[in-house]
Design a protein that fits this description.
Helix content: 40-55%
Number of strands: 23
CATH topology of the largest domain: f41 fragment of flagellin, N-terminal domain
Low-confidence stretches: 1-5, 451-460
Strand content: 25-35%
CATH architecture of the largest domain: Up-down Bundle
Mean pLDDT: 85
Shape: elongated
Number of helices: 10
Length: 460
Amino acid sequence: MSSITSLGIGSGLDLNGLLGQMQEAEQAKLDPIAQQVESQQVQISAYGEIQSALSTFGDSLGNLNDPSLYQSVTAEVSGGAVQASAGPEASPGRFEVEVGNTATASNLTSERVADLDTIVSKDGGELQLSFEDDSLDHAVAIAADSTLEDVRDAINADPDASVNASIVFDGEGHRLTLMSQGTGEQASITGTDFADLAAGNLADDPGDTVAQAGQDANLSVNGIDITSPTNQIEDAIQGVSLTLQEPGSSEISVTQDTGSIREAVTGFVESYNELKGTTDRLTDFNGEEGEAGPLIGDSAVRTIESSLRNELSAGEMQDGELSLLSDMGLSLSVDGTLALDGQQLDASLANDPDAVAGFFAGNDESAGLAGRLESTTEQLLSSNGALEGSINSAENRIDSLEERFERTEQSIDQTIDRYRTQFQQLDSMMGQMQQTSNYLTEQLNGLGGGQGGGGMGGMM
């Protein structure tokens, strides 16, 4: 009797289809576990969104908590004589600047050479450069068989030459012109031995050297006369850099940079509202679609919102007086977002900028609002904070669910293997029974035929 190798052959039943249905029913046990894993992953992603928004909020607090923000000043200039920029050491004030002349560089132009391809120095040598400040005096090495262009290139390639060289054509010949790299009288180039270097190779009418001395800048600040070899003046007004543009008058107004403070406060409000919008979206229930946010009712989110709201609601004691958000033009709206009254903030900055600085950045003795919020935010984002704890818990649940998923898969495989074995046994048994039935039927049929034949013969 041959063994049954395919389900249903022996019995004639659709055992393969039945086994498939049973396997599908068993596999359904995995769906709830997979759904729970997906739910935890969605929560982790949502926590990541809150972490990002909270981190951005923390960055805005860092700007608002920086004392240098409230010490910054800006310089506004009227008139085209100067440009000005104010540094942290500058003090507010108004300054009248009169520029008599700006600092200029010197020029010296050599004797003529007839053609550009004329060999200026057949044997080579050194070109001596002399300056008003003799510490700048320098000799430039000139190669043999150098043309005027070669001399120019050698000067420009020498980092210690203190001049820039070029060539001009004056209608009668070509000249080497040298411009001092520095401005002012002391940087002036005063002479060169170009004629000696090019002896015998100059034009028939070489002409004389042409020199134009550099000059120092002359200006006055609030009536005080100042001389400078450059047009960049760093020490005339403490903390203010001046760049001379042209002769004339300018007025410089150095004031506190309230624009930067206003920008920092605006950034603080916007980042807080973005954080609030993120938490609302992730914790809301959408009644129309019947969908709940992935973090609805989440304790970590409630901790974040209550911690920040408590800090925002608290006032600041300054000189024995309590300052509130409203004094800075800020208010908490009904929906929990921050609103900014720009006019109120500008008025506070104009009337008492120190109070604004104290409210947000605090002082040496105590932190201000931005400092306290920054500490709270850092704690919430730390490895021991509410968010990280929730993320770790979700990851641990995923690990546990994945282990459960794997165990369930193994159990399903074992169950299906057991069913398959039982079906194979059933199929085999029914096949054997069918063969036995067929055999008995044949035997009975044979017995019935013999008895019938004998009876008829007797009768005949």
